[in-house]
Amino acid sequence: MKKLLTILAAIMVATLALVGCGGNQEAAKQDAKVLKVGATPVPHAEVLEQIKDDLKKDGIELQIVEFSDYVQPNLATNDKELDANYFQHQPYLDDFVKEHPEVKLVSAGGIHIEPMGVYSKKVKDLKELADGATVAIPNDPTNGGRSLLLLAKAGLITLKDGVGITATVQDIAANPKNLKFQELEAAQVPRTLDDVDAAVINSNFAMQVQLNPTKDTLFQEGAESPYVNIVAVRAGDENRPEIQALIKALKSEKVKKFIEEQYKGAVVATF
Known about the structure:
Layout lengths: L1 H30 L1 E7 L1 H9 L2 H6 L2 E7 L5 H7 L5 E6 H10 L5 E9 L3 E3 L14 E5 L2 H13 L4 E2 L12 E3 L5 E5 L13 E4 L1 H6 L10 E2 L7 E7 L6 H10 L2 H11 L4 E2 L2
Parallel strand pairs: 1-2, 1-3, 6-9, 6-10
Antiparallel strand pairs: 3-12, 4-12, 4-13, 5-10, 5-11, 7-8
């Protein structure tokens, strides 16, 4: 009888230990802080994937929510559906906030630059563009202005003095080739290449359609580009420990090496 009681007692202890272990694991899981970050697939989501394990060591579960447009990530971050987003540069965010005064987002840190370039399947040199050729450009204010500045730098058009990044097609002062401009959502511009004579495309969207920004561009922004891609958060959240951990992980040597090896100059780390 005593032997039986001893065996039963041992089983109970083992069972309680297992329950306790499971409870501790569940508690640890519950203690993990979830950080939801919105991102466009390439390169932003790919870069974020590299730091999941690093944040996990800090007790942070990184959840990446992919978007294919430039509007919803900011709205979702402002509405607290996301903790942060990583897809845009500061000029775009500045313009977005002006257009949506209810949005209170700020930069938590700059990570990389994606040089914008001019692509074509019809010509191999911009000098070959025919009179009246059609050029697709992004339709959002900052990327639209950025693309026109690039075309001006390439010598295809001349802009009115002082318009800068806010340039629109109405600000074109001279258009020697009588180019026609097709304005589309930035993510859709690469898909027009079969139908237009040339297109000005953000590097992240170019890579999504297997274009190589370092080999396939006819003209590209230089290293002096001011359009650094940032992590945007709600004003005041830039000091949250989770956000600071995110920025620290993104600015690591590990991420810099990944960017260099994965994108070979099409994306350039700024830290």
